[in-house]
Automatic annotation (TrEMBL):
The chain crosses the membrane at residues 7-27, 78-97, 104-125, 201-224, 245-262, 268-288. Signal peptide: none annotated. One of its GO terms (cellular component) is endoplasmic reticulum. This is Palmitoyltransferase. PROSITE patterns: DHHC. Keywords: Acyltransferase, Lipoprotein, Membrane, Palmitate, Transferase, Transmembrane, Transmembrane helix. Residues 158-299 form the Palmitoyltransferase DHHC domain. The DHHC domain is required for palmitoyltransferase activity. It is a multi-pass membrane protein. The lineage of its organism: Eukaryota, Fungi, Dikarya, Ascomycota, Pezizomycotina.
Amino acid sequence: MVSTFKWAITGVLAVSFAVFVTFFGRLPALRRTPIGFLHRLIWIQVPNLLLSVDRKLTSGRITSSVSRFGHFLMHDRHPSIVIFFVVLMAGGEYLYLPAVWHRLALFTKATVVLAVSLPYIFLYLCCAADPGYITTKNHGYHMTLYPYDHALFHPGAECKTCGFLKPPRSKHCSVCKRCIAKADHHCIFINSCVGYGNHHWFILLLVSTAVLCTYGGLLGASLLSSSIGQQFPEWSPWLPQRHGWGMYLVLWGWGVQTNIGLGATSLLAGMTAPLVWGLLVHTLYLVYRGTTTNESFKWSVYQDDMDDGLAFRRKMSPDREKNTLFERGCPRWPVEPEIALTASDNGKPPPSLAGEGNWERVWKLEDVQNLYDLGLWDNLGDIFVTDYKFGDTIPKVGMLGDAAII
């Protein structure tokens, strides 16, 4: 019994850790940590080793087939992961709810219905919403939605695939095959990009899923503990030393095995919850910093250039004359860029970029302003309210710092 319980915990922890490494190992802040090393090992070094072995044994036929399948999974739009996500939630609830429903008070039943329903609602809204597809019809609107910061986004850049000027904060998605306004990232769990049109639904999906996993895990543990206490009156979930750790695990194992649907689902929910909370905290931190996942990676590239002495800045006048063919301005945005930032390969700044005066090297992100960070409440307002108006008070633009590249 203890062995089964230990194996179940070990299996769930292993899967959870693998998912954590997959999603967070790419972050610039973890690049030089064991998590970043494991990510490179799992997704780069091991596949390269298998590829070299397959080339010797089968002339690459196996890896070619696997590569095509992997490319389909990761680089083509399909609902496979969304279906898996829904089946995983629905299957867990099918095992969980019948075992507990008759034991719940009316108020608890109402909270369970709410907690179970919200992730499905927000998942549908995430998938169905336009994430911010830029088309020839709405291109002009998106050109004025945000100002160019002359750091990450410079006027005049053209999307070679879509064939039009890139609006500020936009990015072409190779999976969606379209440019996305205020692109954050492409999320396989919603089969779409997270962008200007659905960022708020994505945050609410994370919140509701984190609450569901936490609530399900805690409620299940409480009910399992109650069942154990009925059979073993000396049982206490808070005092394992009363029984010794060995007997403590035996009793938990007994509770899980006698309520297998409830026990397995509670175990999965409780151990999945930290992953979802971690992703939610990371997402909200980016909101707090006034940046996106895409922009965070761009800032990490600048940090590398700064370390090599290849990043430069110079002043810009907020009242400068703009070339309206490339830079139409953003009437709703309360501040204008005052610094132009660029990087070069040869250690010399390009003379053609906007700005005035001499270029100077910049060594730290702390010395750079993020034009899109207007404070937490305005950052949230820009996400949750379409065409958000910032009011008459000019907010203070946030400084970047190393935290911007988390």
